[in-house]
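Person: Please comment on this record:
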Amino acid sequence: MDGTEFSLSILGKRVNAYRAAVVGSRGASGLNPEQEPISRKAGVMGNVAVVIGATGLVGRALVDRLAAAGHIDGVMALTRRPAGHPSPKVHNHVVDFEHLENHAALFQADLLFSALGTTRKQAGSIAAQRTVDLDYQYKAAQLAAGHGVRHYLLVSSSGADAGSRNPYLRMKGELEQRVQALPFERISIFQPSLLMGQREEVRIAEKLGSWILPVLCALPGLRRFRPIGGDQVAAKMVLVSRQPGRGREWFRLDEIFVQ
């Protein structure tokens, strides 16, 4: 469901701040006729989740699963282009990630699912890829932490290492390192193997890997490196979001498969 008005009764202060931001961007016209406020079950204190990267392989599955999750009352999908959703729980906001601070009020939530990413080919250069995979995601994390988000869930990569010579693994490692210094109550980082699933664009390396890795991972000792579907990663993230956990936790490779 597209929308710019997101009425919630979690905390009066949060609602008022959010409404003020929306009215400021649209004027005082109120809700669109087709928009309905999200209502809470009597006596139940649910959660609001923000998803960045909501049009990607994992992000799309996250939005679907969060919309169906009983512990989530509302989902704010922040995207670079419109991305409607049939669930009344889901509200899509088109944002400029280059100036994400202009959309700071949208980060007044309980959970942030960070699944934003691109490839060097799509971005045009390693520097441009770094802007999306590292800078945009870190800025979102800063805004979320500053607005009281309790739980941060990040899709990283197996092998992520701030000291790696591989530019991709280095940027993933740097992001993990930076977000750990932010005042989230809980940070859950997911380091999957090769992601599989239907993407909007063709990624040749992933395509080749999806053919070769399953064969290699049939060998003794390599099973934990087998490819994983984007929906399976999303399923694990949503499961973790509704269960208690440690303040800082990692889920690597086969630990991400939901049993």
About this structure: The mean pLDDT is 82. The CA atoms of residues 51 and 211 lie 30 Å apart. The first strand starts at residue 47 and ends at 52.
